[in-house]
Each structure stands twice: as C-alpha cells, then as structure tokens.
Amino acid sequence: MNGTNVSLSILDRLSDDWDELTPEAQKAARYVLENPQDVGVSTVREIAEAAQVKPNTFVRMARQMGYDGYEDFRAPFRDAIRRGGMSFPDRARWLQDIRKSGGLGGLYADMMEATLRNIEESFATISAEQLQTAAEAIWNSKQVFTLGVGVNNAIARNFTYLASTGMSDFHAIPRPGSTAVDDLAWASDTDVLIAITCRPYRSEVVEAVEIAKSQGMTIVAISDSPASPIIRAADHGFVVGAESPQFFPSTVAIVAFLETLLSFVISVASDEIVDRVDRFHARRHALGLYVEEPT
Fold first, then answer.
1. Domain with 179 in it: what CATH number?
2. pTM exceeds cut of 0.70
3. pLDDT score for 92
4. What pLDDT sits at residue 107?
5. CATH number for the domain harbouring residue 54
6. Which residues contact 227 (CB under 8 A, 6 or more apart)?
7. 93 occurs within a structural domain
C-alpha cells in the first residue's frame, strides 16, 4: 500500500473493525489506510492535523485496536522505515522526528542519515552488470590479493576470510611484517588486486595499485570518488559513499559492497564452490570449532 511494507495485518484489522469505530475514529482509520507511509514519520499531533481530527481520536483508535496508545500503534510502521520499506523522503521525515527528541537525538539522526545515504547512493551508481564483470574476473583469476590499510585492513581481511571458505589463493595484504609492494612481487597478469582506500588516500595503496598495473594485474578498486587515484587506474572501479558527521569516514557502504561482490563471485563460480564450502564447514565442525546445538 502506497509503497510501504508494513505488515498488512494492521491495515487489514483496521478495515475489518471499521464498523465498530466511531465516525471520528473512521476518519482517522481512513487516513491510515490511505497514507500508511505517514504513520511512522508523524507525531500524533501532525497526523491528526493531516486527518482533520483531534489527537485524542488517534489515541482512542489505537486503543480500540488493542494498543496502549498511538506510539505503540505506530511502532511497526517505524520499524518498516528502518528496514527500508519507505521512500528516502519518508525516512528523512523520520530522522527529523528523532532530532526533535532532544539530547543525543540529533547525533543519532545524523549518523543514521549518513549511513542510509551512503548505502543508497553507492548502490544507485553500481549496476549488476558491473558487479558481474568484476566477479567473473575474480573467479577466473589464479590469485586474488585484497589490499586495505588502516581501518580498511580489517575489512580486507574479513572479505578474504569469507572468500577463502570456498576459494583458495585469496591473500589479504600487507602480510604481517611485509609491505603491499613486496607481497605483489611475484603477481602477474593472471591475478587480481582488490584495493580499498578513501580520502585521505593512503600512499602505499596508490603505489601498490600502480605497481600491480605495471605487472599486468587486473585492478578492482573501491574508493569514495571517481577522481580517486585508484579508481582512475582500475579496470573495475566502484565508488562508495563514506561521508559521516564524525571525524572518521564511514565504512558501512564498503562492507555492504564487498558482501555483495562476494555474493556475485559465488553466483558466477562453478558448481565446485558449493562442495568446497560444504567440506570447509564440515571440517570445522569435525575439529570442534563450533558450539554444537542440540538436535
């Protein structure tokens, strides 16, 4: 209904209980049924004004449906916004509502707004075709090196760890006690380098990309600007949002992108990858690395 994925049971109940509502409560119910996207982003006063009823009318309607009050009634609608069930403008109104709560509500809203925007803007500029092409290059390569330094080092290592459950010859660099340039010394045109850096760009990552390029490696670059030096040097460049109200850049979109890229690699891979993943996890269970739950 009108772009929302709020559980239809709430709206169905409003329709089913229609005849039991007072005429004023029916006006409130009609507004909810026709404008469910407004419920999660509006205060009781705002939605009552839009429906041309008194605020208490919405409170009574919610109680007739078994809720403690309007805030309890609109909770599922707010949850739908958090899950992405509303348009970005509706989420923006929801964030503004949080800002009005005082205290650290403004900071909370700013962080949520930056996170949502980074992810939405990142995926809006990346096509499935681009991801598939990069994924095929990764799967068809002999070796894959994932490069990140600073905060991106942990992200690169996490991606490599997950990929290694089904694929061999994945290497997170720089290795302990080494440098990225040294780690790429014997790489060739059969290999792929996945490089990550955002402003201010790390010189060792830029240098490693330049050397990898000269060795004929395929470059998959992830950065925060089309003008980034590693994007300009890449065979497959992906721009992700990293803006944040804090002093540190956001890494949420980078993680989301890498998870998506890995899912594409698995999708374009041959059937053997399924057997590899099964054997990997069976071995870990056999070694007692997981807590076994009762059957």
1. 3.40.50.10490
2. no
3. 59
4. 72
5. 1.10.10.10
6. none
7. yes
Instruction: Indicate the residue among 100, 135, 169 that finishes a domain.
Output: 100
Evaluate whether 50 touches 31 at the Cβ level (below 8 Å): yes
For the ranges 4-13, 162-171, 200-209, which has the lowest average pLDDT? 4-13
Give the residue with greater pLDDT, 246 vs 120: 120
For residue range 131-184, list pLDDT tens digits in order: 999 999 999 999 999 999 999 999 999 999 999 887 779 999 999 999 999 999
Q: Indicate whether 3 pLDDT > 50.
A: no
Q: Which residue in the block uniquely carries the two structure tokens 């374009």?
A: 268
Asked whether residue 170 falls in the same domain as residue 236, the answer is yes
Number of domains into which the chain is organized: 2
| Same domain (yes/no): 198, 264 | yes
